[in-house]
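Quick one: co-fold with coenzyme A.
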Amino acid sequence: MRIHKIRRANATDLDDVHRWRNDPMARPMYLNTAEIPREIHRQWFSDSLHNPLRQMYIGIADDGRKIGICRFDYLPAETTAEVFLTLNPEMRGMGLSSELLRMSIDTLSEPLGPDTRLWAKIRKQNVPSVRCFLAAGFQQCSHKEDWVFFTRSL
Ligand SMILES: CC(C)(COP(=O)(O)OP(=O)(O)OC[C@H]1O[C@@H](n2cnc3c(N)ncnc32)[C@H](O)[C@@H]1OP(=O)(O)O)[C@@H](O)C(=O)NCCC(=O)NCCS
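Sure, here it is.
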């Protein structure tokens, strides 16, 4: 299985992203571990698609299946962007995550300029995520309580 392409998220991804976000294996890895009701998600997703400071990319496999979503939240005042990655549960454990992350970073568009620093906050026990971010060129920069922080330049 390989990643065929990366494209911007659009309204057709609403329900897939909701399902991936609410997956019982994924939820404990987020800051907000609660199940997200569909209406709350629908509003958030719709706002996100129109938010110029948020970019969301979907990876598509060579068989056409959606691999997952990579999201960047840009903070212009700090010239940083926080990165979030969630795979389709059906596509996990296939070694696709770091490639999705790298390809999404390579696809980033304005206003994220070349001096933007990327960072991610990951639960210590989230071994696949830690390995994924390291493989995509991130380095651990600090840690606090249950979380480790990773950073990378563009
Ligand atoms: C984190 C996540 C994106 C990783 O994707 P994945 O498909 O599970 O992981 P991959 O198959 O790409 O493997 C990534 C690395 O973790 C390792 N790994 C995968 N599953 C593992 C497991 N259960 N235990 C230990 N290591 C594991 C792989 O061997 C690989 O390491 P390597 O490159 O050194 O060989 C995915 O599990 C996910 O969506 N989790 C829920 C959301 C989340 O935690 N997001 C991260 C916070 S932003």
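If it helps, The beta strands are 3-8, 54-61, 66-75, 80-87, 117-123, 139-144, 147-153.
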